[in-house]
Amino acid sequence: MKLKVTIVAAILWACMLQGEGFKILIAAPVTTIYVKDSLCAIARALINNGHQVSMITPLVPNFAHKNLKVIKIVPKLKFLQNVNLFTLNSSILEEHTTKVLAATAEAMWEGLPMRREMGTFASFDAVVIPKFLNELIYPFLDDFDGVFLTFTTLGAEHYAVSHMHGLEVGYWFVKSLLDGPYVGSHSLTEKFILSILELSDHNFNHSKVHPSASDAIKKYDSRSIDFEEYEEKSRLRLLDGHWLLDGPLAHTPATVEVASLTARDGQPLPDSLEKFWRSNSSQGIIYVSFGSYLKSSFIPTHLKHTLLQAFSSLPHRVVWQYDGVDLDLPANIFRQKILPQQDLLGDNRTLLFISYCSASAMREAAYHGVPVLALPIALDQHKNAKKLEALGVAKILDWRTVTADQIVGAATELTTDKMFAEKMREISRVLRDEKERPGDVAAGWVEHAILHREAPRLQLPYGPEQLWVLGDRDLRMLWAATAGGLGFLLGVILTMIYVSVCRCIRRLRHKEKSE
To answer: Is 265 buried (19+), middle (13-18) or exposed (0-12) by CB count in 10 A?
Structure first.
């Protein structure tokens, strides 16, 4: 009898807790698969804590739950859809971004699922919005009285720092730009170059992204949108970063690192892969993937044949995520359009991961302790590859000039030199030894921001003049010296012009008098 009473009491208590849960909106109308999966990890943790979560997304979440409501939007063009990374440049990215924002705005304002939810935003206790390319959601927050939080991926965290309380001071901090050329400790010259690159990156956001978002919104909402005013309202920033992989980053108490959200333990491999493994003797598995967005038709022909020649020469079982059927594969290569990446990385027979080194690839390889042979192509991939190389767990090859012998040589070194695997396993142990899963950490801070009404004690209590003091002193001095030098040079040039003009005037007057 006592046992029954205890069980009933526990059930009633659980129901009470569930009833007292918060309502949280995760709004990501523009997203990538990696960001979507990261947000799903946060959503799952929030739901496990008894809260209700709604997600605005163009992509299907990787789990379902009765307390997860999906508000699906269907834009005609998604971010990075049909983008050839091999030919990507700034102008193509700018044009693609403009089209994506326009298509997403149309899907949001004209799509039935979103129209049904337009009046419900005020009912949420908190809203989490990815920082980059999701400005379209801001007009819906006008009547929102809850807590506004941002999720920021590495390479965009300078936006989050720069916009805290409206302080445009990100240039004084040396941070990890999306495609910055340096990792680790920086010389003064490298700091100066990074600050210039950050100015350029900041300009892209303000001169390209914001105008494109504004144009897309104006078609449906005539109000003038001040994006910076909305961005200043963010009270907590969840940063996809980890000190072990990314090094120390300059941020404030209101920024919480929650990296490797998508990493999970591996599951047994499918029967098709097990059959492939047993079909022949092998020294181990090499897993090859260039991500979900890169179609086989985008890969240059010379690179395809170089990869095929190299893989054919390796004494390993090569498992290649490849959606084409245009290659005649030897017996040691298994091809499939979609492969269970984390199950393969989590299998102790996998010795090497050949990848273009996206953020998800970098973090999942580190979590599972598998060394990486990186062939970075675009965006943040070069930066990610350099981070792993600096940690001594990866080698980098240039896809433009790589040869089959170079691939075979690098793969052989990475699989036979135990130093690479030992260093990567040590990183894996540290990541796995975290006391809380990253999703649980993120969920805890979301709850903190709600319970403490916008977490006022995490906010900076001072203005830009004090915040600058926290920046890099040498970099500030170099900028001051550069500005002074340019000012002096400009003064000299103007003085020379003034003297030359005066001389010309005197000569003309003298000539007139002589005549």
So the answer is: exposed
How far is C-alpha 362 from the chain's CA centre?
11
139-194 pLDDT tens trace: 888 778 889 998 988 654 444 444 443 444 444 444 444 445 445 566 667 667 66
Buried b (16+ CB within 10 A) or exposed e, 120-132: ebeebbbbbbbbb
Strand partners, 25: 54, 127
Quick check: helix, strand or coil at residue 70?
Answer: strand
> Both tokens of residue 347?
């299998």
Backbone phi, psi, residue 27, to 5°: -110, 105
CB 404 within 8 A of CB 313: yes
pLDDT of residue 229: 79
Structure tokens at 343: 């199950």
Angle at CA of residue 50, ends 47 and 51, nearest 5°: 65
Which of 82, 58, 79, 81 shows the shortest CA–CA distance to 70?
Answer: 58
Residue 487 is classified by DSSP as H
pLDDT of residue 240: 87
- Residue 275, token pair as written in the block: 């059959």
> CA 469, CA 34: separation in Å to the nearest integer?
36
Each residue of 17-34: pLDDT tens digit?
Answer: 445 699 999 999 999 999
Q: Tokens 């060394």 map to which residue?
A: 371
SS3 content of the chain, % helix, strand, coil (to 5): 50, 10, 35
Amino acid letter, residue 466: Q
> What average pLDDT score do residues 392-402 get?
95
- For residue 265, which amino acid is it? D
| Share above pLDDT 70 across residues of the chain, in percent, rounded to a whole number | 80
> Helix, strand or coil for residue 349?
coil
| CA–centroid distance for 471 within its chain | 24
Query: pLDDT tier at 455 (50, 70, 90 boundaries)?
Result: confident
DSSP β-bridge partners for residue 149: 128, 236
Helix boundaries (H) for 314-372: 341-345, 359-368
Q: What residue has token string 């929102």?
A: 144
Q: In this predicted structure, what is the pLDDT of residue 184?
A: 58
Beta strands in 241-332 (DSSP E): 255-257, 285-289, 317-321
pLDDT, position 237: 86
Query: In this model, does residue 6 exceed pLDDT 80?
Result: no
Q: Average per-residue pLDDT in the chain?
A: 83
Q: Compute CA distances 511 → 85, 500, 505, whole Å.
A: 66, 16, 10
Mode of pairing for the β-strands spanning 350-355 and 333-336: unpaired
- Classify residue 489 by burial, with Cβ atoms within 10 Å: 0-12, 13-18, 19+: exposed
Residue 176 parent element (H or E):
none
